[in-house]
Here is the input.
Amino acid sequence: MKRVLSVFLVLVLLLSATSCNKNIAKYSFRYQSGASDYDTEMYYDDSFFDKPSNTYNPSLATASMSLALASFASHDGEYINKSKNAFDLLSKMGFEDIEPNSYFKEKPNSDSLGCVFGHKSINGKQMIACGVRGGNYESEWASNFTIGNEDTFDKYHKGFYEGSCILIDSLKEYIKNKDINGNIMLWMVGYSRGGGICNISAGRIDESINEKDNILGQDVSLAKDDLYAYCFEAPRGVYYDDEFYPKTELFDNIFCIVNNNDLVTKVAMKDLSFTRYGVDKILFDNTNDIDYEKDIRKVIDFFNSYSNSSILGEYSISNFEMKGLKDFKLTTSSEYCNWTQGIFLEDFVSHLTLYGVQTRENYTQKLEEGLREILTFVFSKNNVSGSLYDLLLSIARSMLLTDSTDLLLDDVLHNQSKLSIDLDIVLMNALEQLKVDISKESVLRAVKGLIVAIAAMVLHDLDFAILFPLMSQSNFGGLAQAHKPELTLAFLRAMDPLYSKNPVNYSMDGKYYYIEIGDTSADVSVTYKGKEVVKIENGKPVETGSTIAYGCHRIIRIYLPFNNISEYSITSSSNDVKVSVFDYRYDGCTPLDVDVSAKEDVYSIVLPMSK
Here is the structure.
């Protein structure tokens, strides 16, 4: 009898598991990418919202990215119908009264924002879904570069804050027009610019919930546990200082999914004190995932499965190489092993900010207006890449063919104070030859400001090849690929049990050990579970077949994926060692005390655990 009951219970459990799995419905949807719309599929169920919003749900993250993709402006049809992909997907998921805001029905301008809403009943409350347009938004590109000055926009990136005002006002209008009242739930998603605006909007709503000021109107009530915000590849848009830090528990229901290799996620710049609201969930790379080589294969399989995979091209970000100049030819630098695109971009953006741009005020006065003018002009054209290419090529050609080229080079090397004056003349002559409807004066300021900033950055450290990697065609392709939304979706699918039988098991905390060794002639060896993953002989990095990133420029730098039970063994011929742990909760490195023991001029280094 007991045996029969046991079999019966097993069958019940199997049937209930099967039944539960069947409830997770699969929906097809379309999304815009490049010059066309494409089809793919996603899983969705109302049960994704059963847990409080500050509990990260990988399946809700994948569904959110799918909705964010569908919220791109469709390539097909007139402006009045550009939100049709989001409309169709929300309809399939059971949402009603689906409606875009007014900006989604007309041609975008430099500071507009498109978003689309729908609502349905979940757990006795009205759930409002909000998808923010994050792709194919034309002239809105200009807003991305509108940081604003500290006097009027001290707490925010101006362009993203103004976008959040449009989003919140549109949401309030939708709630009023659809006569929604009582307790509500809110699901907000956005990608890229849409992710940055979604991030600020969710942060402002969290603050209003905490302060009980009903930013969404008096007829509705929203609890923090019912606000679900997922922001993908979002730029930084929130200013922080000693008095305000937007990564506290107050904002832990806002999740920012970040690819370290994506340049967009590194602006506005950390060195100008910008960050994001909420919790950064970091996609894996070889700085933070010891199983990266195996795990990335699963991502690549998903990336290659899209119907537009031939246009996306082969995954190339892992092929990034640091470059140098030898005999006036671009060559792979022997000083670095497995250096990542993300590490390079972090160095590049930091150097450009600290030594080139220098201050937020400098940026707004010398760069902002001209960059807005250029981007508004470029992205108002049908052929965006062609427009930008033609504009920049015309300026470059006019500059390089002038007799003043040698003069400008001499200014850069020997007389930087005169560079700005000489650039005025050369650039104005170049712009006068362009037959385009564009403000010559503002573009002049922007291009000149960029050249002066880059020159200052390079001159600060002439022997640091910070620009050379950008001159590599293969590297440049990886920079563009890192911001493909299909790649973000592939990462999420690889970690989601609804899409993968054996999903990648990765914490998404992005933590890693950062090791500095001051003696650049040192011998260093790092083993992991008995296998050598780092080898440096007399200060020269040696390839080990590992994906661990390490290199030497004035200091030896080693990046090791963090684990709570250290299985690394480190030896060095130098005891000049500093160890820290990078933690995205604090947007920086925390120094750790290092236990170093010596035996016959060989130092063993024990990695401490972070607190």
Summary: The mean pLDDT is 88. The chain has 16 helices and 25 strands.
